[in-house]
Design a protein that fits this description.
Radius of gyration of chain A: 22 Å
Number of helices of chain A: 5
Number of strands of chain A: 2
Oligomer: homodimer
Mean pLDDT of chain A: 87
Low-confidence stretches of chain A: 1-20
Structural class of chain A: mainly alpha
Number of domains of chain A: 2
CATH topology of the largest domain in chain A: Multidrug-efflux Transporter Regulator, Chain: A, Domain 2
Distance between the termini of chain A: 45 Å
DNA sequence: CACGTTCTTGACGTTGACGTCAACGTAAAG
DNA sequence: CTTTACGTTGACGTCAACGTCAAGAACGTG
């Protein structure tokens, strides 16, 4: 897969003036989809939920580096088993205004909550891994005793 | 809650001969449910999926220590975001026969797969925590610059 | 300019993980 | 013996996270 054969259209830079190569590149929905190993339907679903908001060139979606970054965060959150709504509130936090002090303190509070959650998960994870290790040892013992 | 007022029935030991106190105790569905902070519906659902299989005293479910152990594993798996079906295959692995060598080798293979999955999750988790830390630092910097 | 490819917007279907409600059994308490 | 609390089996509802058509629009190519 990903062999650069014939289909190599739409790699033009976007609206600005520069045309370097990677900073101002744009991507089609198909490109981001199979770059991240998801379907276009999934990508659109995430847009419906406000997780990403690509530019529109006419009716067509145009994805920038920012969108890919966010999509990456979403998928990591998904691998960690978070519901998409929760993921949205988290990554929205990342580029929230935080101009006023109150805003900043709210954000810091949210951070603490998130961290508590993640650390609970880490405990669960370590426990699961430890059990798995112990179980493997017992299995290997059984195996060696069979010889 | 859990005040030992009037309702203190059904704490008799089960079928055997001993009657110590905690090893051979049994529990009702309501007891396990609110001990683990889930509804009775959830407990029954897990039974439907074969995650636990309590004894039946007539039609009534009677839970033993084994069931509570398994329920604990299930809920940890759930906190980690695993689908229940997958959880079942994993904890079934724990008390699989593993008498013959082939069985044992199969189990060891499964263990490796599981561990790979868990370690991917750990990487995601560490990354998320690291990002969170960095983000908090930036926020605190912003805050101190506002003074 | 017809054609195939890629994209679009609906809209309904599906699966997992339960919630919820109805209707009924049963055992201790008054 | 009725009440009350807890338990049981269906069966349908719901919500999230997509899958899966259907039916067009837009665009480069032979």
């Amino acid at each position: 897969m990903a062999t650069p054969t014939t289909t190599r259209t739409g790699a033009r830079s976007a609206g600005g003036d520069a045309g370097s190569d990677d900073a101002a590149r744009t991507w089609s929905i198909a490109e981001v989809a199979d770059e991240f190993g998801v379907t276009h339907r999934t990508v659109r679903h995430y847009e419906d939920l406000g997780l990403i908001s690509p530019e529109r060139r006419g009716t067509t979606r145009v994805y920038h580096r920012r969108d890919r970054t966010r999509l990456g965060l979403v998928l990591r959150g998904r691998r960690l088993g978070f519901p998409l709504e929760e993921i949205r509130t988290i990554i929205d936090l990342y580029d929230a205004p935080r101009g006023r002090r109150s805003q900043l303190e709210y954000v810091l509070g949210q951070i603490d909550e998130r961290r508590a959650d993640l650390e609970q998960r880490r405990r669960d994870l370590e426990a699961a891994l430890a059990e798995l290790d112990g179980f493997e040892r017992r299995c290997r013992d059984d195996l060696s005793r069979m010889a």
